[in-house]
Amino acid sequence: MADAIFKSFKIKIPFLGLEGNWEVDDVQRKAAWEIYVELVTRVTVIELKKDEGILREALTSFYSLFNSTREVLKKYGPSVAAAKNPGDMTLGHVATGVLNKELRPLLAKWHPLLEDHEGRRPEKVSISEHERSWKHAKALRKEIEKVRKKLITYADVLAEVSEVDKLHA
Questions:
Q1: What are the Cα distances from residue 131, in Å, to 52, 114, 122, 136?
Q2: Which of 7, 48, 63, 117 could be a cystine partner for 24, CB 3.0 to 4.6 Å?
Q3: SS3 assignment, position 164
Q4: pLDDT in tens, 7-21
Q5: pLDDT digits over 31-42, tens only?
Q6: Residue 46 domain-assigned?
Q7: Domain assignment of residue 145, yes or no
Q8: How far apart are CA 38 and CA 30, in angstroms?
Q9: 3-class state of residue 44 by DSSP
Q10: What is the pTM of this model?
Q11: Are strands 18-25 and 5-13 parallel, antiparallel or unpaired?
């Protein structure tokens, strides 16, 4: 027997090209909460200001969101991706959209470029100093900020689905 629907709303996430109805049951609500906690406790939604943090750590945070989301989707199973009505949205649609359309391109482009630069760090130069000297550091920070702003929209949706006040700024 399927879980009862406890909330139904219209969803529109322009950066994913998703729009439609989302009928949320308790399984999707619990899974959304788990993803939300992972999302709002990382640099993924917290601004990485100029000269703050380390780019490698930021990319690692994005990567671990990828892994944790995948684990939550596997844990809760196909029901988080099974729409009640044709054309409806589900947590599966939204979460995989974020992974494949936002996180994957960021990581696929920047991980190998940063790794190549990291491999050239002189022994006596600090990690942060070496990163700041990288000719692509500003561009990566700009990309991280662009994705972060989109992930705030995602976090807003997850908070609504989870029925919690926003825990993110």
A1: 11, 8, 12, 9
A2: 7
A3: coil
A4: 888 888 989 988 889
A5: 999 999 999 998
A6: yes
A7: yes
A8: 13
A9: coil
A10: 0.90
A11: antiparallel
Q: Are 62 and 44 in contact (CB under 8 A)?
A: yes
CA-based angle 85:37:39, to the nearest 5? 85
Q: Is residue 167 part of a domain?
A: no
Instruction: Report how far residue 44's alpha carbon sits from residue 60's, in angstroms, rounded to the nearest whole number.
Output: 10
Range(s) of the domain holding residue 80: 5-162
Reported in sequence order, the residue ranges of 14-166 that DSSP labels E, i.e. its strands, are: 18-25
Of 1-5, 13-17, 102-106, the range with the lowest mean pLDDT is 1-5
Task: Report helix, strand or coil for 2.
Answer: coil
Q: How many helices (H) and strands (E) does the chain have?
A: 6, 2
Given a contact cutoff of 8 angstroms between Cβ atoms, the answer to whether 119 and 59 are in contact is: no
- Cα 98 to Cα 95: distance, rounded to the nearest angstrom: 5
The Cα 84–Cα 5 span in angstroms is 9
Q: Is residue 168 situated within a structural domain?
A: no
With CA atoms as reference, report the closest residue to 11 among 92, 105, 67. Answer: 92
Q: How many domains does the chain have?
A: 1
